[in-house]
Specification:
Layout: E1 2-5, H1 14-23, E2 28-32, H2 36-46, H3 48-56, H4 64-71, H5 75-87, E3 91-97, E4 103-109, E5 111-118, E6 123-129
Length: about 130
């Protein structure tokens, strides 16, 4: 396990993460000082519906409608939760526009494992990237 120390989890350039992933055999541990934004990420990934959605889309991408039907979550809630997860850059989005102009998006978790550790001086979020 490799540890990456960084002050702003959301501003780590993707290129640096990819380089670090390769050096660490695709296992990353991001460690930061305890800050408000880290608490927000922890709250997002541990919230009930977000957790259900993330677990449901770790292995295969799914549409919002599929998530709603499979996990019995109201569609409006799924869209709100997906927006929050996208805002924190925790999802990969792929999509198409059909011939009749309808947008069809699929969502997949960027991580196949999240671990959160907290002690007196350190807040750690361990992320194992999700590779196909």
């Amino acid at each position: 396990m490799c540890t990456l120390y960084y002050n702003h989890l959301h501003s780590i350039p993707t290129l640096y993460l990819k380089i670090f992933q390769n050096l660490c055999m695709n296992q990353i541990q991001i460690t930061e000082n305890y800050k408000q934004e880290n608490e927000e990420v922890a709250n997002i990934v541990t919230e009930k519906y977000n957790r259900i959605i993330l677990q449901g889309i770790m292995n295969y991408p799914k549409s919002a409608r599929d998530i709603s039907a499979e996990y019995d979550i109201p569609l409006s809630t799924v869209y709100r939760r997906i927006a929050a997860l996208l805002d924190k850059k925790l999802l990969i989005t792929t999509g198409i526009i059909s011939e009749d102009g309808k947008k069809y998006f699929l969502y997949q978790s960027k991580a196949k494992k999240f671990s959160i550790h907290l002690d007196q001086d350190t807040f750690q979020i361990e992320l194992v990237p999700n590779h196909k």
